């Protein structure tokens, strides 16, 4: 039985300009014990999908089940199996950290949870903040509390919606060590993130969303194998010749060009030389998940394809 099963999920919002389709026919099973990543640019539909999973929003069509429990008709059982770390920092400011975690335990009918709460505080570097009022905590500390709060009832499935957005390197490392440990012990993890380096390092399988469509679903290793094998990277202040600029990824002075083999790289360097482009800090690196992501996102999506077809 899958840990999470999304079956033909669509979601539309009613807006003043008519129906807006945030998700279109998403079907996806996440198996028990997987570390699964959900990727996509801003507005792709990731948070909407997670809200439907957590029972916070209703799908317009389709159904979602958690360990076989339907999130609508069997909400309590589905919710107990999930530990959801939301993107937004929302708290009751009147309680301290330990009180917040005890209250959350009570919400799941768990009393005498202090041993596990202490363990959570320890692993999330919060032990010395146990008695601090939530109002006194920094944004990064609050995010740690959100993670602890999601885990008080030892859920078998952990859902993290951009848990490292705007947090420092130390928290990221602490958090990932802890989550990776829980995953090794059997927890299923569903993660959304814009940090593709983290997704590449942690997730064994990935889905990519674009405009509410699922545009990729594969093992991380398979997605990486699809990428061009190398990337030629250099800095320049000069304009690139047209042939190269069409395929280049440019960030400020940094230019990155996909290259299948050594001949490709030689051809690119010759074209730069012939065009009189002065380059600095030249290096060749292996293609990574960011390259794959940008390639997938650059493809025309179904809607664009339809528009293109009708334009031909
Ligand atoms: N209540 C709502 N009413 C109308 N449109 C909405 C509503 N909630 C979300 N949307 C729209 O649905 C789309 C998907 O939003 P969602 O928050 O799921 O994206 P996301 O992939 O999580 O983005 P981000 O990476 O920015 O968090 C967006 O275009 C958003 O504006």
Please give a quick description of this structure.
Belongs to the ABC transporter superfamily. Helix content is 37%, strand content 28%.
- CATH architectural category of the largest domain: 3-Layer(aba) Sandwich
What is the structural class? Answer: alpha/beta
How many angstroms does the end-to-end distance come to? 46 Å
Quick one: how many beta strands?
14
The largest pleated sheet is described as:
6 strands, mixed
Q: Strands of the biggest beta sheet: in what spatial order?
A: 6-7-8-3-9-10
Q: Which small-molecule ligands are present, each listed once?
A: adenosine-5'-triphosphate
By CATH reckoning, the class of the largest domain would read: Alpha Beta
Integer count of domains: 2
How confident overall, as mean pLDDT?
90
- Indicate the low-confidence ranges by residue numbers: 304-312
The dominant shape is: globular
| Count of helical stretches | 12
Corresponding CATH superfamily of the largest domain: P-loop containing nucleotide triphosphate hydrolases
Order of helices and strands: EEEHEEHEHHHEHEHEEHEHEEHEHH
Keywords: ATP-binding, Cell membrane, Membrane, Nodulation, Nucleotide-binding, Transport
Domain ABC transporter: 4-236
Pfam families: ABC_tran (PF00005)
Protein name: ABC transporter ATP-binding protein
Task: Explain the overall architecture.
With 312 residues, this protein is of the alpha/beta class. It has two domains: 4-224, Rossmann fold (3-Layer(aba) Sandwich); 228-287, Alpha-Beta Plaits. It has helices at 46-53, 75-80, 97-107, 114-123, 139-151, 169-184, 196-202, 220-226, 242-245, 262-274, 289-298, 302-311, and strands spanning 4-15, 18-30, 35-39, 61-66, 69-70, 82-85, 157-161, 188-192, 205-210, 213-219, 230-235, 249-251, 254-259, 280-286. The strands form three sheets. A six-stranded mixed β-sheet has the order 6-7-8-3-9-10, sandwiched between helices. α3 packs parallel to α5 (139-151). It is globular. Bound molecules: adenosine-5'-triphosphate. Residues 4-236 form the ABC transporter domain. Belongs to the ABC transporter superfamily. Keywords: ATP-binding, Cell membrane, Membrane, Nodulation, Nucleotide-binding, Transport.
